[in-house]
Specification:
alpha/beta, 2 domains, five-stranded mixed β-sheet, 22 helices, 5 strands, globular
């Protein structure tokens, strides 16, 4: 079903940014490591300009997580029914339904966590200690995918130290695995050194960017799925009962607390759910001996998922989605709407410029979504630059246009850069959906008070 609606609303602002990043191969980017842009580059080399093809990668990652959840259940001793239920829990969990429709780091991060969880369980159950090397490699790949996997590593360490499984740390293998993870990360660290450790600054700037601890907990419940909460809770309890697996139970709790304490976003710890689903499914099978009770419970869980499906997937027609207000609950939908309209409106402003202005003109966008859309949809436009995140580094070294078309900034801010500011348009979209861009002015700025390249460091934005 996900692929059937993969291109219903259009490109998401983040996807346009990943495409732009893929056209600028590097060892790192301000707000994410290089693996996701690399995957986008490979995908678009085969299927240029195809949104379904790009999103197919995250759908495949989501399918792999479903399989791995079943494998974790099997590793924990679950029978075929428990394995099937673990896979089903991932399939219907709102977090995994909603995340894998978009090409983002999230899906690949979830896959890394699932593989790491499987390997960790295997080690706790007595697998060859050399498998710590494999786990280290998985973490290294994870660190090159999304930095939040650090939280999982810390939680696993807490799980080991807090239980009798700490004996693993007396072996050299976990530490050699840690060394492999750092070794894999070295290329990205090299990029960080050459780019002012901007990823660290970005992370610090976003610390605490949540709605508070109460909202964090409530959002966790919604992401996991209210119908699956008993499976998660009892999964932790089931793991805790087994002394050999107790470190896994502590890991689940620790990773949730870690991101709560540092002010992380609610979805950051969500990739730990498959581990809890796997254990909880075994508990469910052990407890619910009567087949009709199991079937009723599963049917109820699936039914609730179907009710919530329009929030997770773009199954509604675009106009129905806009009119219903679902986009207010799922901002991602709003971020998929209006980009062709936006680019057409900016293009119209450019085409109306006097020929005398066109010899020295640039377009300045306030954020990566606007810049990414102009780069992707724009035809015959002047150079597009943005000081937002990694776009900051893609600007030409010399920038001294006499005329700048500007989107996304307020007049008062622009008055510090230009002596002549004229509003030439207003951004709208065909649905009238009031997303982040709707209603913003399109400016024509002349008489620069300072050249754009001189002002560039002041414009840099890491938020």
């Amino acid at each position: 079903m996900t692929m059937a609606v993969a291109d219903r609303y259009g490109w998401h602002r983040d996807e346009l940014y990943y495409l732009a990043s893929s056209r600028h191969p590097a060892l790192g980017y301000v707000d994410y490591p290089p693996i996701t842009p690399l995957l986008a580059r490979l995908d678009q080399a085969i299927f240029p300009g195809s949104l379904p093809a790009l999103r197919l990668l995250t759908v495949l990652a989501g399918a792999a997580i479903i399989v791995i959840a079943a494998l974790i259940a099997r590793e924990l001793g679950g029978n075929e029914l428990a394995q099937t239920l673990a896979a089903l829990a991932v399939l219907i969990s709102p977090m995994f339904v909603g995340a894998n429709i978009l090409f983002q780091t999230v899906s690949f991060d979830e896959l890394v966590w699932a593989v790491a969880s499987l390997s960790f369980v295997r080690l706790l159950r007595g697998a060859d200690s050399r498998e710590w090397l494999l786990l280290g490699l998985v973490f290294g790949i994870g660190l090159e995918t999304k930095y939040t996997v650090i939280g999982l590593g810390i939680a696993m360490l807490v799980g080991l130290l807090a239980t009798k499984s700490r004996w693993h740390l007396a072996s050299p293998w976990p530490w050699l695995g840690f060394g492999i993870a750092i070794l894999v990360l070295v290329p990205n660290l090299t990029w960080q050194v050459g780019h002012n450790w901007d990823s660290v600054a970005y992370t610090i700037a976003h610390r605490g960017a949540t709605d508070g601890p109460i909202a964090y907990v409530l959002q966790q419940l919604l992401l996991a799925g209210p119908q699956l909460l008993p499976i998660i809770v009892m999964g932790v309890w089931w793991l805790w009962r087994d002394e050999a697996l107790r470190a896994a139970a502590v890991t689940i709790v620790a990773v949730e607390l870690f991101f709560l304490l540092i002010g992380g976003k609610a979805y950051y710890p969500a990739p730990i759910y498959p581990l809890a689903f796997a254990a909880g499914s075994i508990w469910f099978v052990e407890l619910m001996r009567r087949r009709w009770i199991r079937r009723l419970a599963v049917a109820g869980a699936v039914a609730l998922t179907l009710v919530l499906l329009p929030i997770g997937l773009p199954i509604l027609p675009a106009k129905a989605m806009a009119d219903s207000g679902i986009w207010k609950a799922r901002k991602d939908f709003a971020d998929m709407v209006g980009w062709p309209d936006f680019v057409e409106q900016v293009t119209t402003v450019y085409q109306r410029l006097p020929l005398s202005d066109r010899g020295s003109v640039m377009i300045l966008a306030s954020n990566y979504g606007e810049a990414g859309a102009l780069d992707f949809y724009g035809r015959g436009l002047p150079p597009v630059v943005s000081p937002h995140l990694t776009y900051y580094y893609w600007a030409p070294a010399k920038m001294s246009p006499s005329t700048v078309i500007v989107v996304g900034y307020q007049r008062g801010y622009l008055a510090r850069l230009f002596g002549d500011i004229e509003q030439a348009g207003t951004i709208t979209n065909f649905l009238g959906l009031r997303n982040e861009e709707y209603g913003k002015a399109i400016w024509i700025c002349r008489s620069p008070l300072v050249s754009l390249d001189k002002a560039w460091p002041r414009l840099k934005a890491l938020d």
